[in-house]
Amino acid sequence: MVNKTLVLLVVPPEVPAPGGAQARIPMDSADDFAVLAGSSVINMGKTVVHGGDVGASPGGEVTGFPPGAVTHPHNTRGDDDVARQAQVDLKTAYRSAMTATATHDLSGQNLGGLTLLPGVYNFSAAAELNGTLTLNNQGDPNARFIFKVGSTLTTATGSAVITINRGPDLGARADVMWLVGASATLGKDSTFEGDILASTGITMQTDASIRDGSAMTRHGKVTLDSNKISKGQAPA
Fold first, then answer.
1. What is the rounded distance in angstroms from the CA atom of residue 50 to the CA atom of residue 90?
2. What is the DSSP letter of 236?
3. pLDDT in tens, 124-172
């Protein structure tokens, strides 16, 4: 009998997909945000945010826009009714996603070099990415990836998350969600994909980017530094 953990370490490592398509976790009004913090959003440099608002609630502090820019028709928000409701919906989405049963345990493994198929992946503690993680949708437009990280998520300088074989609708958003029990740090010049829902904080180092996703914290701050965040297809 083949040990599944060993299969993950073979090149190229393929993880079997669970049976049956799963519906996207609804984020309701939180889905209108590309960056949402519990306490504050602090930007340095010419960060560009596309496809969603930037807000902080209940902290209400959003600084560094400009020089950062949020593309029209989206804008920055303090602790207003919209941001407050988004935090409520973010909490609901986080709790809903956490109920998904893990289909694979990757605790202690580096995500770099893996090719994963749709499923729910669990890390009992920290998760690290050093290299490239490939997510293979297998041509299924309803494919979903959930990563449940017990503590911290860290990506190394120049690392990347990419999605392949999305299916006929190449313009559709990837359905990738990262549930982080503590904080997430995206390394310098790294390229990330998916919605990060962190408990205590998110730090994006210089020139790190999120494609087809968002950076959201339930309690802490989001720190930006000359980043690109695109929720959906970015303008040419």
1. 19
2. -
3. 999 999 999 999 999 888 899 999 999 999 999 999 999 999 876 655 6
